[in-house]
Specification:
The protein has helices at 31-34, 81-87, 106-119, 135-140, 158-175, 190-193, 198-208, 247-252, and strands spanning 2-8, 15-20, 42-47, 75-76, 90-91, 94-99, 124-128, 148-152, 180-184, 214-219, 230-242, 263-276, 286-293. It has 298 residues and is α/β, with parallel strands linked by helices. It has 2 domains: 2-66, no CATH class; 75-297, Rossmann fold, CATH 3.40.50. It has an 8-stranded mixed sheet with strand order 8-7-9-10-6-11-12-13, sandwiched between helices.
Length: 298
Amino acid sequence: MSSAVVSTSAAQGRPFVSIKEDADVCPQPSGAELFSEGRPPQRVVSVTSSGTFSDARLAGVTSASRLAVRPAPEMVSSGIAAMDALTGGLPRGCLTEICGPASSGRTTLLLAALAAATRRGECCVLVDASDALDPQSAAAAGVELGRLLWVRCGENSPEKSLEQLLRATDLLLESGGFGMIALDLGDLPPQTARRIPLTTWFRFRRAVEHTPTVLLAVERQSIAGSCSSLLIKLGAMKSASRGERTSEQLANSQFLLPTHAQLLTGLEITAELVRSRLDRKPVRSAEITFASKTAWAG
């Protein structure tokens, strides 16, 4: 049987607990030892074989050696095979951040994740801070719109839109029952998005903990700090386009384009795994490339 010594300071009123695993019983000090050099009296508390304290006042305290390792979260597909190979997917019950500048593939990854979730039969939510979602593009990406709740926060000022987004997120996390809750802050100015305090992100993380919900935040820059379990940074490498058309192709096409025009068909996107708190090993910087194509590219 292990033992613990609890010393209570009369001056500060705060208990100090030390655990001795190699001793069966902590010897009871004599009266002379208790009051020598003005030290306060000590109380001996034993630790049972189950790892709990016998003292009723410490009934809720468990020995550190008996604490269980937190299980790894369940991972679900992001909808992009290369991304799943990089990160293992998106973790349930955790906050995932996707950041990158404009035209870096944020919307591509967002719609792919929503499409994968709705195909699994899950109900999802998109809290849109700038009213930027195009339903036709979402449907073309495979999102089942019948399973998507679109919360539009397009107010006149970014500050009011941000306030609506935070309020809606609190209500959605409290209600529960969603497979994915995505927060699209990509079109908000970075200085506005950075006004979200870390305490708010911490509250969101705790609210989604131990639930099957994937909490996804899409931003220009990382703003959740250590509250996010997964941080992915995106960047566009180069664009793929169709070159000049012949006169016969222009005559047969629906749209008359200048002979020097080029049609954007897609982007080569890089994704870097910046931070992962899903395992106890430090993450190594890893990068992948995947293609994004426009809806009209076929």
